[in-house]
Design a protein that fits this description.
The protein has a five-stranded antiparallel beta sheet. It has one domain (about 1-184). The chain has four helices and five strands. Helix content is about 55%, strand content about 20%. The chain has helices at about 1-30, 65-85, 95-115, 155-184, and strands at about 35-40, 45-50, 120-130, 140-145, 145-150. It is of the alpha+beta class. The two termini are about 35 Å apart.
């Protein structure tokens, strides 16, 4: 009984975060044209872009086969994570949160890949620079002799995956430290 309620709550979180991701993408695609930006804060825009590849546009120009590869990977990872979630003890809340976040992000981007062969991204973080950009940032010229360094655009699913991965690493590190202390 406790275990089924535990699992149900995490599945509700996964479904809710996946729905929030899809709703945010719907709002952006119905409000903006491709490449159009709306400034939200200094150094933060909403800019509609599409990514046919993986993180940082990896394999985005591969010709279309990557859609199915990334879809299969996302489906497999999500299935494995749900299976892992089912095996957790209700006391493992932090690990369950990490798994739920990663699963919801993978599912949110999977829906995009299956439905439209690309992932909708819209969060555009940047900074002004007069010299080279930091690693992973790319330059876009905005003014004469000045440009902005942009992080690759992302979405709520990507945020969920990143936060989940950080929490998962944190959990593994904490569990490893606990195991070392218990053996001493």
């Amino acid at each position: 009984m406790v275990k089924s309620a535990f699992m149900r709550n995490w599945l509700i979180l996964i479904a809710s975060l996946t729905a929030a991701d899809q709703f945010s993408k719907y709002l952006i695609t119905s409000s903006l044209q491709l490449g159009q930006s709306i400034a939200l804060l200094p150094n933060l825009n909403m800019t509609l872009v599409y990514n046919e590849g993986a993180a940082f546009g990896f394999l985005s120009d591969a010709g279309g086969w990557q859609r199915w590869l990334f879809s299969l990977v996302a489906l497999g990872v999500s299935g494995y994570l749900i299976f892992w979630l089912r095996s957790l003890d209700p006391s493992q809340k932090r690990l369950a949160l990490a798994i739920s976040l990663i699963s919801s992000g993978a599912l949110g981007n999977l829906i995009d890949r299956i439905a439209q062969a690309k992932v909708t991204d819209f969060i555009d973080f940047y900074y002004a620079s007069s010299s080279q950009c930091m690693p992973f940032f790319y330059p876009l010229s905005d003014y004469i002799n000045s440009y902005h360094c942009h992080w690759p655009s992302f979405n709520l699913a990507d945020i969920c995956i990143s936060l989940g991965a950080i929490i998962l690493l944190f959990d593994v590190f904490l569990e490893g430290n606990r195991d070392e202390k218990n053996t001493d």
